[in-house]
Design a protein that fits this description.
The N and C termini lie far apart (about 70 Å). It is rod-shaped, with a radius of gyration of 28 Å. The longest helix has about 45 residues, at about 1-45. Strand 1 (about 45-55) and strand 2 form a beta hairpin. It is built from two helices and six strands. It folds into two domains: about 1-45; about 45-105, no CATH class. By secondary structure, it is an alpha+beta fold. Helix content is about 55%, strand content about 25%. Strands 1, 2, 5 and 6 form a four-stranded antiparallel β-sheet that branches.
Length: about 100
């Protein structure tokens, strides 16, 4: 009787372990698929620099993308856009001009 009980307990432990591994494997597959979709979406993302200029003594606000030769300057990474924006901010030094990195949709 004791051996039967020990055998049953070993069976339960092994069954529970295998079941847990199967559930963990399914969860890992779902996470890998989600991460692959996220990486694909990252390759499609573009970042630009949004410029807001406030006119002195007026309520006029001018907003547009920072442009070069009439086309918005776009970056593949947010970090690249931030570094470029920092350089622009250092050159501009205007109290009435603000820059912001935005994702281009």
């Amino acid at each position: 009787m004791t051996y039967l009980f020990i055998g049953m307990m070993i069976g339960v432990i092994i069954g529970t372990t295998i079941g847990s591994l199967a559930v963990a494997f399914k969860s890992a597959e779902k996470e890998i698929a989600r991460l692959e979709r996220e990486v694909d979406n990252m390759h499609n993302k573009k970042y630009g620099i949004w410029k807001t200029r406030y006119a002195e003594n007026s309520r006029n606000i001018f907003e547009d993308w920072v442009r070069r030769d009439g086309e918005p300057i776009l970056f593949a990474t947010e970090r690249g856009a931030l570094e470029y924006m920092h350089g622009i901010e250092m050159k501009t030094q205007g109290a009435f001009t603000e820059f912001e990195v935005r994702e281009v949709i």
